[in-house]
Amino acid sequence: MHHDDDAHLHEVDADAVFALTRPDRKLLTLYVIYSLMTTVAFPFAFLPLYFRFITLRYRFDKEGVAVSYGLLWRRESYLTFARIQDIHVSRNIFERWLGLGTVQIQTASGSASAEESIVGVRQFNEIRNFLYARMRGHFASTQPAPLDEILAGIRDELRAVRQLVEERRRV
Amino acid sequence: MYEWLKRLILPLLKVEERQPVPPAGRHEMFRVFRACPAYLAYNLLFWKLYAVLWALGVLAGSVLLLVISVWFIPLIVLLVGIATFKASVFYATTRLNYDMRWYVITERSLMIREGVWITREITLTFANAQNVRVKQGPLQRLFGFSNVELDTAGGGGGGGHEGSASTKPHHAVLRGLDEPAHVRDLILDQLRRHRTAGLGDPDEHPALDAALLREIRDEAQKLRRALADLPQG
Please, are residues A29 and A43 in contact by the beta-carbon 8 Å criterion? Predict the structure, then answer.
């Protein structure tokens, strides 16, 4: 189990996240459980989920993350880290038993559901930390803003120059 | 009794009990909030209503069945058993839901962890926040707590009942706060530090070159000195 108490203390292990391309094998177990819950509809529920599992791919790069799946109807979505609004990590009881988690990423689009879901991963905490370190607003307040001070300095200097010149004129 | 039950159930539920830590980086400010006891009392009120209704229903049903025949006794026992079980599960979930509720506020981000059956962790940065609301219903007013809600940019939601409102996208709810104004002000203070629209590219501010500006200032300074040294007339 990945329960990292000091996750906030050490650097985010970016390489581990970049290396992630497939969901955990246990996701298939999870899909079997979901499908079993539909009882008689099991084959109909399981087949799409099975194909989703075997085609599901994740790709993390420097700017964003892509999720693709689908056998006949393929879909691939890509979103940039800088556009992330909020990150939801949700785990239902089956996911917790299997040690999995779902990371849902929201951008500022109008859709009600998550723009991208990274399902069936053990490294949900790492991914959350990874995304958090790259999402918008993370560095905004960490950078000091001395620019105002400098600009005020320029203004004061110029004002002093003007006053000097005015004094000389009067003489 | 509850504590004992909790020890028994928690390993089965595999819920993380510790407070959540905001990921990555040092934090100038780090505040942890929890729902107030009044929030638990408020939720337990619903449990009490539920329990009373069930008790009345089972009692009425039992009397009715006993009037018809004594042979219904096993059925009555089963009914009472089911009712008791449902009521205790409801009770345990209410208590656990209160215990498993965490709000963490840092100078950059807000993090909420909640849930028993489904655990959810919401992480968002204040740079993305759009508005803050304090909400209080009449019953909540009676108990003396409020909810603080925070929206990020982007629509959605709409549907979904009140109970799951805190899990809607672009929406975070800090439930059951007895000092909502304090938390709201704390969040607003952080929001004021980010004067952008809460949308768009990471570099909305044109990147000013500090070195260049410093040069301008130094130039102006030299100009003033030169002028001061200028011979009169």
Answer: no
Q: How many angstroms from the chain centroid is the CA of residue A64?
A: 8
Per-residue model confidence (pLDDT) at position A141:
44
Say what the pLDDT of residue B131 is: 85
> Given this model, what pLDDT does residue B198 score?
53
- Sequence spans of domains, chain B: 17-35+101-155+163-226, 43-100
CATH topology of domain B17-35+101-155+163-226: PH-domain like (2.30.29)
With CA atoms as reference, report the closest residue to B19 among B95, B98, B103: B103
- Find residues 50-69 of chain B whose CB sits inside 8 Å of chain A: none
Q: Within an 8 Å CB–CB cutoff, is residue B126 touching chain A?
A: yes
Question: A54 — contact with chain B (CB < 8 Å)?
Answer: no
The pTM for the full model equals 0.75
The CATH class given to the A14-141 domain equals mainly beta
**Residue written as tokens 């001395």?**
A146
Ordered mean pLDDT values, 10 residues apiece, chain B (233 residues): 81 78 69 92 95 93 89 90 90 90 88 90 86 91 92 64 55 90 90 63 58 82 80 63
Query: What sign does the dihedral A105-A111-A113-A116 (CA atoms) show?
Result: negative
Number of H helices, E strands in chain A: 6, 6
Contact A137 B128 (CB under 8 A): yes
Q: Which one of A5, A136, A146 has the shortest CB-CB distance to B210?
A: A146
Closest partner CB to A161 (pick from B153, B167, B224): B224
Strand arrangement of the beta sheet that strand B146-152 belongs to: B129-135, B146-152, B171-177
